[in-house]
Structures are given as structure tokens and as C-alpha cells.
Amino acid sequence: MMTCKQATTLMSQAQDRRITFKERIALRMHLMMCSGCTNFNRQMDFIRKAFRRIGGDGE
Amino acid sequence: MSADNAEELENRIDEGALTALRGDMVRFAALQLRDAAAAEDAVQEALTAALGAREGYAGRAKLKTWVFGILRNKIIDVLRERIRHPTQSYDDDIGTDDELDDAFNQRGFWRKEERPANWGQPETEFEKGEFWRVFEACLNYLPQNTARVFMMREMLGLETSEICTELSISVSNCWVILHRARMRLRLCLEENWFDGRTPP
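C-alpha cells for the assembled complex are given below, as produced in the milestone run.
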């Protein structure tokens, strides 16, 4: 199984590139079992939204 | 009211609206340039350009979005100029980062006390001025080169490939730098903002 360290790396990269189907499946499996990484994943989306706010979009 | 007066009034409103955005613009520029004087200059140039191109605006987008687009380009120009005269290689930031690796145990799973918390409905924090003060402090706390790469990605919206070309770093190093920036930022926000708050 994917480790949390690998999962966080992948979640961060998902913000910068299109992750592959295989990666997406492995990540989803991990997230089903890991609350810490599930929280991390939501936090990544939140951080992106915060930057959009600062940049004058999305209000 | 004559046509001239109407036009003059419209112009005044435009200038008023632009002045109201000035504070946000300076903060946006200062976070990326980390230099108050350079930030003021970039904002002044962007506002001058915006006033000059007022007819080109024509309400196509929200005023703030349009003006920030102009400012973004000014900041990119300043950063390009700085990149041409680098003081330090960006690859210097690559290496092990013990502080961040400590979040995981030897098997690569979160240590119990390091496990990311549930932030509840964090978007509601956007309405609080104090939240943004903490957010900016956390960004300013990032190491300089890490921050530079991260801001180019998140605040200027450049693609990773463009950033690595500009900074002459490999794509994989770019990803490593961005990942570390996000790890640090989320940790800083959790410790300094979300920890003291019970999720709704």
C-alpha cells in the first residue's frame, strides 16, 4: 500500500500536473483508510482557493 | 449634466475604484517581491497602465480581476529581471528536509501528533482579516527560494514547466520545492490558526 509520505507527495503534484489513472486509484485507496491524508487533501484545495482570493478572483 | 461632465464623473469613479484596490495590490506584490519599495513601484506602474487603458476595460471582467491581471504581468517582469541576475542557485534548496520528514515515521506514515487535523469549513475564515494576517505571515516565513517558486505557481498562476525553464531547474526539483512549500504552509496554518479553533 502507498505510504502517507508518498500520498502527500502525489496530492501536492496533483496541484501541478495531471496525475495518471493508476496513481489516482492508488491514492483513492489510501484516502479511504487514512483520515490524516484525507484532511491533507482538503487542505491542499483550501490553500489553492486562498491564493485565488488574494489574486483578485473568486469573490 | 453635459456629456463632458458625465464622462468626467465616470473617470473619477474609476479612479476611486482603483484607489480602493491599491492596498490589496500592494500586499499582493509585497508577498511576492519581498521588498516594499519594489512592490510600491510595481503597483504604481500597474495603476498608471490601468488608467491609461481604461477604455480597453469596458466592463469585460470585474475591475479587480482586470487590474490584478495587469499587476501580475508587472510582477512577472520584475521577477524575470531578477532571475537574469541570480544571487543563488535554486537547486541549493534541494536536499533532505529533516523538519518535514519528521512528520512521518520510518514506515512512511504520519506520526500521531503530526497527523493533519480536520479544518472543518475553512472557507469561512476568508471573511476574517486576522486569518489573512496569519496566512501572510506563514508565506513570509517560507525560505526565500521556496517562496519564489511557490508564488510563481500559486499567485502568478504560471505552469510548472514555465517556472523550471525560467529558473533553470528540473521539473522534478520544481515539484519537490512546491511540495515542501505546501507542507510548510499547511503546518504553519494548522499550528497558528486552526489548532486553537474547534471545527464546526
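Chain A has a mean pLDDT of 92. Chain A is about 75% helix and 0% strand. Further analysis is deferred to the final report.
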